[in-house]
Amino acid sequence: xxxxxxxxxxxxxxxxxxASGELIERAKAIAAQLEAPFALREQKSLDTLRREYxxxxxxIVKKNRLVLRMGDEEFFFHPxxxxxxxxxxxxxxxxxxxxxxxxxxxxxxxxxxIGLGSxxxxxxxxxxxxxxxxxxxxxxxxxxxxxxGLRSTKEKLEPDVIAAMGxxxxxxxxxxxxxxxxxxxxxxxxxxxxxxxxxxxxxDGIAGIRSLADLKPLEPAVxxxxxxxxxxxxxxxxxxxxxxxxxxxxxxxLAGKYASVGYGIxxxxxxxRG
Length: 274
Fold this sequence. Notes:
It contains 10 helices and 11 strands. By secondary structure, it is of the alpha/beta class. α3 runs parallel beside α5 (118-127) and α5 packs across α7.
């Protein structure tokens, strides 16, 4: 399967202002991979490049990260809240995502909507050194940025987080189609975190990439396909008071009394529903 199946927006690939020859060559390679134009920075501001190329979307290749600039918004990979939840796991505190997915040591988890990668990092940590997370991302640009970030982001991160990031594989494509390619019982659990039907106003980092996201609602047929692929359970994250629970009818919704989000659970293979 090709890692990139088309670019979501017409981007110009360039570098940071101070770019070594090695960084320039890396940017050119990424531009070729994306089949996108490459612009030699030459100390030019982004405003200058905007005028020269009549384009307002840039993928900026920096030493330790890729940054997507779309107008005044920017997106780059960072473990974000995953770090705090990994620390909670180490303290043996409850982490709702791990509880909902019932992650055990050695589990293989399929994250059908990896997005920024935060949930995938937590899942990979919970699954331990013999576990693995496969993450599907619809947007080719987000997939590229997160894949590169998982490989190269190391500074100031704890060893457990770095190790978990190394156990995540990012696959670019439409999960509706990719799910059909997996044999029955391929993963212990399958996870969906689609864009909420009613977006959270204070969701940091999400607003900037919403225009690139797959906004189609999850369909019952996709849940059914996920149940075929999963050995134990399928889980979807949504707002705790969402109408999606009535539409999709999970077996259980796991949400705290004052929690803003909940996890819908479909049990597979006769698992005890507690």
